[in-house]
Each structure stands twice: as C-alpha cells, then as structure tokens.
Fold these 2 entries.
Entry 1:
Amino acid sequence: MALEIKQGLKTTQKISLSAELKHSITILTLGRFELEKLIIDELEKNPCLVGVAKQEENNQLHYEELKRALQNSYNQNDYTERYNDIKSNEEISSNDQKREFADTSSTNSIHSHIENQIAVMRLSSYEKECIYTILQYIDDTGFLNTDIKTISENHDIHYDDVKFAIETIQKCEPTGIGACSLQECLLLQFHKLKKKPKYIEKLLTEYWTEFQKQNFIKVAKLEKTSVEEIKNAFRFIKSNFDPRPARQFGQQSNQVIIPDVYVFKRDGKWICSTNDNGLPRLKLSKKYSNLIKSIKSDLNEIHSKETFKYINENIKSAKWLVKSLKDRDKTIIKVVESIIKHQENFFENGVEHLNPLTLKIVAQELDLHESTISRATADKYLYSPRGIFELRYFFNTAVESNSGKELANESIKQFVAEIIKSENKENPLSDQEISEKIESNKGIKIARRTVAKYRESLGIMSSSKRIQRF
C-alpha cells in the first residue's frame, strides 16, 4: 500500500482574546476584596497610576443622602435592625476606608473554586460556557437545585450537553458537588473511595429508606449479618462523607461582606448606586504623561528608548485598568437595574414575592452574553433595606401553580421552612405531607423528593430526626 501525501488549505475560525480583554474579564469577575487588592497592587507597581482620594465633604453628603434613602425605604419596625449596619457620622469621617458592611459568612466562593478547576480542564470553549451557565444552579451547600430538563429549556442547551456539564462539575473537588439529591451526593463520595467497605453501597442504594430511618435491624436481617456490622457501615458514612460538600466555603467565621451596590427607594422609585467607599479613584499621572511627551522628541539615545518603552507600556496598562474599572461599574449597575425591574415585588414585600428570573433573560434584555451576566453577579453583593444579598440570589427557576402563575423556587423553599417552623413539634410533618400543604396553600404540585431537596438545602433534618430533638 502506497502512502500519498497531499498539500491543502483548510480555513478554521478561532476566537483569540487579547491580554487586555482577558484582564477586563478578570476584573469583572472579581469580588470586592479581590478588586481592592488588585487596585492596591497596581498602584504599587505602576508609577503611571495615581490614587485620588475623594473629597471628604462630597463623600459625606453622598453617604448621608444614601442613609436617609435607605431608612425611608421602609417605615416598618420589622426592618429596624437592617439599619444598624450603617456607621455613625464620626466613624465615617475618621475611617480612611469608608464602607458599610455586614458581619456574616461568605457562602459563594464555591462557584469560583469550581471555575478555577474547570479552567484547566481540556474542554472546548462551548463546553466551558455550558458549565459556567449551570454553575448558577449550584446552591450554597453544593447541590444542583434544578433538574436537567429545566436547565436545558431555560438556556436552549441540548439535554446531553447539560448532562455532560453536570457530570464534569461532579468530577470537581470537593467530592459530592453538583449532586441533585443527598443520596447522589453520598454515592459520588462513595465511588471516589479507593477501598470500599462492605454494606456502604447497599445502604446508599437498596436500603436508602432504611438508612434514613436508621432501621439497622431490618437491614441486618435482609443481609444476614449482625446489627453491629450495619451500624459500623452507618458510622463510616457519617464520619467520612459530607452531606453538604460546600459547607467549608460557607464557614469562614466573621467574614466581612462589603456590598458592591446599594439599592434604595427615592421619590417612590427603586434605584441603585455603586459603593465606592474604600476604593481609591484611579487616574493617570500627569507627571509621567508629560515626561513621555518630552522623551518622544529625543529617542536617539538608548536609555531614552528604554525609558520611553517602559513608561509607554505602563501608561497603556493604566489606561486599560481605568477603563476596565469604569466598564465593570457600568455592567454591574445595568445588571442590578434589571434585577430591580424584575424583583421590585421582593424589595417591597419580601422573599415570598421573589419572581422567577434567569441569567438568560437579563442577558437578552441588556444585549450581553450570558457568561458576562454570570461574571457580573459572581461574588457581588447589594445592600438593601431587606438586608445584604448576593446578586445570584435573585436568579430563580420558575415553579408553575395550578392557576398557571409562576413562582420562584426560592419562595417555595421559604414556604417549606415556614411550614416546618409552625408544625407540631411532637408530630413533625413528612415530606409528603409538606408537599400536600404546599399544593393546598399555593396550588403548586411538588414531588416529595423535591421537598426533601429543598429541606436538605435549608439544613433541616427529616421528620424522623426532627422529632428526636424534642
């Protein structure tokens, strides 16, 4: 057989991002703390950048106006505590980092943690974009809170592509991430074990119901073994598997959250404003701008050429950073304005009035790519009279009632919590009974398994466990 060598031309399309554009995307993705660090680092290493402190008087006036607007947004006593986070005038004027904050735990870095792992995987740009889109459905405990079909329909992504993306997420650390249920979460952790103890897999599959009820005697009889053997398997699961794999990202004690945006009511209208307190305003150094003009006239000497190149590169870098920061603010404000438009009922009346909203809807409305919205909402917070919320909190899939009205799944989750809170403590409601209550009160049919998933994401035990607490 003879080998034939042929020459030919093949045209391919490839999108190549410039270093500046990559830098701009990174800046959009950064949370508040990372952004502050980047600005400080750039000020230290780039002599062509100058940090300008804002005029104290103007800043104080802006703060007072914002404080009044926030306080006037609600007159209800229920929300008095929400205003306690705002500092006094004396604290504001004496502190060089003027910021309003909430002393609470950060629970959103799990998304960044997964993104970092996905970035180094050998995947196509399309596969990565699918994964980044699906990450919005990973809740703070690490569970996938929406089914594959719904994600596929919401984002026009093929069912198999969604499934592949979820399976890829499930390969990330911490093990158990991206599971649709507690059972799947524990099984993912089991399959990662090199040595698999006896009875573990059966407890998590064939005897799942018995496992949840801790019915060791029944399992022991069926397996023709001792009760102690089954108890040992149960203890192994309890001590080695994590039912909330992302909990480590939500237990940073006393983590200060600084809002990126304020949302408040002024003249009967909800508006938003960026929180620039604590961030130096950057501008180009006049000294180096003038210096490079003088060097241009004499580039014959070697040192002049080297100096020109050094200053010119730093000026370009400084200009791009200033532009990227402005673009970041503009994009985040646009996204928050869209959130206000869709979620005005929430700001007025609370979580029960949260509307279904997806990144895709906002992306289409703003004529931006969905991945841009995803980056603009990652690790970003808004401060409102109802508290501090991560921007991704406002994106919820829809649950349709019998009347055809759509409700956000977050509001249903809240209703589950309220039902459990008001239940008879001596006779807790089962997931099926909670499902029936939701249907009778809200007109929404929700499967028992869905109730269980909501309950687990809220950190609430099953009825058999809840009764043991009283």
Entry 2:
Amino acid sequence: MDEEPMEMSPDGNRNKSYYQGFHDNSNSDMDVDTSHDMSYSSPYVNNFSFRNMSATIATSSPYKSEAKYFHQTGESVKPLGMRPLIAPKKNQEKKISNLHKDENLNTLLSESNKLIKSSLEKKKSRSKSKEMSPREKRVNRRKSENQYDGRRKFYGWLFLAVLFALLSTFIVIHQKCHIHMDINKFEHVFDENVFGQHIAKHALTTTLRNISLRMQNDTKLSTNPLVFSFHGWTGVGKNFVTKQLLYGFDNARVTTFLIPLHFPHKSQDKEYKINIQKWVKGNITLCYVNMFVFDEMDKATPGLLEGLLSVMKDIQRIEMEKTWIIFLFLSNSRGHQINNYLFTEMKSGKKRNDITFEEILPVLTNLDSSDEWYKDFHKQGLIHTFVPFLPLNKYHVHQCIEKDIIKKGSQPTTELINSISDEMHYIQPVSDHVPYSLTGCKRVSDKVDIHI
C-alpha cells in the first residue's frame, strides 16, 4: 500500500499533511463548492494548486493590493477563502534586508570603480595630449640640470660655512687668548702726533714694557689693575695720548666717563658709589684689554671716589687669565705745580728736555699738606704710574698747527701758521724767552678750520 507523501509546513516541521483532513460530518460549519473554486480564474488563485481537495482551508483577510484589485475588477473575494494562511518566517525578513544591503554595497563599489576608471582614462588622455616636442624636452632637461647644480652649490657653501663656524669655535675654546701690545708702534704714533712731552712718553712706555713682559711669562696675574694718573694744564695732550694708547693694543675695549656729564649731581652721590662698581665690573671682558677712562677727575664727588676705591680693591683679588684692566685718570690737578717746577728749573739754566721723570715725580706724590682727589688712591698703592704733562710753548703750538693743516689736506705755510698762532693766548715766563700757551694745542683744530 502506497504511503501518502509527507508535506512541509511553513514553520519547517515535517507533518503528515500540511492541510489537516476534512471530516465529512454534520457538525461542519463550512461547505466548499469545489467545482466553482476550481473553475475560477484569478491572478491571485491561478498559481495555487490544490493537492488535497478534502483539506481544511485557512482563510485570511485580503492584502491592500488584493483589495484594490478586487475593487477595480468587481470580482468576488470568495476565492480568497481557498488561500492557505501561511505565516512568514522571522528570519526571512532579515535575509531580505541583508540582501538589500548587499545590493546597495555592490552598487556603490561598482560606481566607485567606474569613477576611478574614468579618472585614469582622463589622465592618460591628458598625458597623451601634453606630449612634449624634442626641443621642449631639451629645455626641461637643462632646467632640471641647472636646478640640480644650484642645489649642489648651495649645499656646498652651506657645508663650508658650518665647517668654518665649527673650526672658529674650536680655536676660540681651545686656544689660549693672546694679548699683544706693539710698544714700538705706540712710540712711533706718539712721536708723530704729540709734541713737548718727553717725560710722559718715558713714563708710559717704561710701564707698558714691564707689564707686557710679565704677561708673556705668566698667564695669570693677581696684581693691581694698571692705573695711570695723567696730570697737567689744559690742552697739553692728556686726551690725545689716551687715544693713542689704543693703537698699541690689538684688542682694546674702552669705556669713557666724563665726570661733569655722567656724575653731575652731588645729591646723587650715594647712587654714584653703587653704580660705578656695577658699571666697571660689568664691562670687564676676558682676553681683552679693558680700558676705563675717567676725565676731569678733579671734579669727582666723594661717593664716586669711594666707589672706585672699592671696585679697584675687589679686582685685585681676582686672578684673570690674559686680561688687562687699565684705569686712566685725567685731571688738571697739580698742573700749576708742574708748570712752576719747569719754570724754576729753566730759570736755573736747565733745559726742558733734560728734566727727567724721576726729578718731577715728587711734585705729584708729596701730598702731606694737600687735599687732592687721588690722595687715598696713592696712600693705598692703587696708582701704578703718575704721568706729568709739561706746558706747551709757542714752538710746540706751531707744530700742532702744521700737523693739523696737513691732516686736513692743505699745504702749511709760514704765513698761515703764524696767523693762526697769533690768535692763541700766551703767557711770558721770566725764565724763558719763548711764550707759553694758556690752552696748549686744545683750540688749534678749530682755528685751522676757520683759516683753510
């Protein structure tokens, strides 16, 4: 006996039959006219095949599309009663949504591939349209070669500059600083430009030679700073000689203070005492000749003098390698005493050039009964060398005039020199037949400018 085939239910369970058998009894509420149903033609029913006409049919309400169809055609909705009610699977909706996502992704990928292909084709077409001629290729090749040569030269010079900087730094760090003073050069400049000051020349050159020898033999000196005190009348050459000292040093740094200009107020004396110490210490540079020039020291205030004394003592305690510190104090102090000594010696029959440094030095150092500004400096041994400047007579003034005329590019004549000299002021000492200038050579340059 043949067994009836098993049917699959919509939920995937295997049953005897998906449609339960119809029991023909009197309690049935539903009679089906199969002949009518089988002959009915509808797009929603034609595709449905009845396997078991005796099965119980599950009815369902029409969908929106079905209701619209039957409403438009006017057909009967009775065949819908023959449609089995099939519940959709839950996973089926997920699969459908995933399929839609995959389709969208594939669409995007295909569109992006099309865009990439089109851009590549455009680039190829542009490159083909921009094919250069042989001449253009040669020009571009030359340009690229020139650019390469320029870059190579730039980096070459850059390398040399860096190498030079490194070598310079190495030399500065590892080589001991060398301070050299050309004493012969200083003497030559002095003789060419300074007149009538043989004592000042002797005092300066002797001191500088001694210090230079000590510096060559010992790199570290724990001594007093080199202090020169210039004394003499106005216009005798104190400032000029100070400038000429610079020609003797290869590496000199000068700081100049004019007392009436930089320290004018006695009411600020306490501030001057503090500030001068800071300024001096702050301007000392190793491996250099550090020169501090103080002009018109005879007008210095007590606080300024105390500050200078203090800073000079502090410098004594410092060992400095290859470093010179030079103080130059310029003043008119003891100028009258120097002039009187000269006139007295000449009255006794002694010539000017025969007077020595050792003979005139006591005029500056014997300060028992005087109250000079440098008295405390001298007592504490801070002044290394006193430099006296003798007064200048008319003959020396003529030398200054002639030198200044030549310096300014004119030809000096006796008439021109005499006319300029006659405008200067002189005194006539009893001991000498030659008059002496009251202002030395100080106003010579201004007079020369007027006459040439």
